[in-house]
Amino acid sequence: MEKLIVANWKMNKTDSEAEIFLKRFLDYEFKTNVKVCICPPSTSLNFVNMYIHENDYSGQVVLGGQNVNENCTGAYTGEVSIYMLKQFNVKYVIVGHSERKKYFFENDDIINKKISVIQLNDITPILCVGETHEEYKNKLTRKILANQLIGALKCATDNVVIAYEPIWAVGTGLLPSLADIDSTLHYIKQCVKQNFNFNVQVLYGGSLNSKNAGEILTLEHIDGALVGGASLDSEEFYKIIQS
Ligand code: PGA
Questions:
Q1: Once rounded to an integer, what is the mean pLDDT over residues 178-183?
Q2: Cα(232) to centroid of ligand 1, in Å?
Q3: What is the pLDDT of residue 58?
Q4: What residues line ligand 1, using a CB cutoff of 6 Å?
Q5: Which of 69, 93, 116, 130 could make an S-S bridge to 79, C-beta 3.0–4.6 Å?
Q6: Dihedral (Cα; 241, 58, 71, 69), 10-degree rounding
Q7: Coil, helix or strand at residue 87
Q8: Is 41 helix (H, G, I), strand (E, B) or coil?
Q9: What is the pLDDT of residue 29?
Q10: pTM of the model
């Protein structure tokens, strides 16, 4: 099965920085069994979309949004709607990222609405789930993830990708053991199947880089990765894709 490798640039890169990245990155030859999704800040969606299409890379690389408002239009100063994302051929939108929960109070109610609005527009949500370090150490990961999945997928249809992102692994250099990552990814698939009766693709995210990608991306139950810091450098991101 084709692996999905997602670059989450977060609040990084202007158009000119994106151009430097894309020039180098798109010069590389990719493995054929990999789909790359780049999630730039919304200010660079237009530029990245144009660049990918003008240079004929749309077969290999697709665009994703880092966030969307749950409302389709209206008086929501500073927000971005699904219609705005659609203008730029966005194929995926990240939802429920731990940074959005921490800094912007994204909760289950909002996440459900966002997933609905994304799916109604034929775009695929990438739902992030993950436990704290305390919860990991106390072996509560499965319980926490089940709650998050059941809470977030109430109105969802089967067109959804789940990213397992332990909160304590995001941007820290810390990672769960390989065995724990694999069994958690397996558990997520089983939990969604049991509760919602559909199959999902599962990604791992959190301190993934070119050094650990080889062993993580060959785990039995993994379908891809969500990469933050290590996706900002074209060479580093390329090495992850080739892993
Ligand atoms: P990181 O971030 O790779 O920098 O840990 C991952 C993410 O937040 O998606």
A1: 98
A2: 11
A3: 76
A4: 8, 165, 170-171, 205-208, 226-230
A5: 69
A6: 30
A7: coil
A8: coil
A9: 85
A10: 0.97
